[in-house]
What we know:
Blueprint: H1 9-20, H2 29-53, H3 59-86
Helix pairs in contact: 1-2, 1-3, 2-3
Amino acid sequence: MNWDDFLRPETAGTVGGLLGWLNAPGGTVKEQAFNLLSGIAAAIFLAPYLAERAGMASQTGRMAFAFVIGLVGMNLLAKLIAAAKKTDWAALLPKGTKQ
């Protein structure tokens, strides 16, 4: 193995997620761990797709993009979960719908 084997978007996203964990949202260690793993998963699975859709051709550009997704992905997920908990989902149903 050489250094080039580690220069991959997945590695960059994982490093971004680990660095983001220093400021991880969540009240408990379990929530922080979930948010960390979510950020890493977004960097590994979502970032390559988004980079492809954006037309990023360079490997360094894809690595930088995955790093940023890993770094902020956990924070975005935590905000989405908090918003979902506050949402009155019943209010989104059409009037007259049985609950």
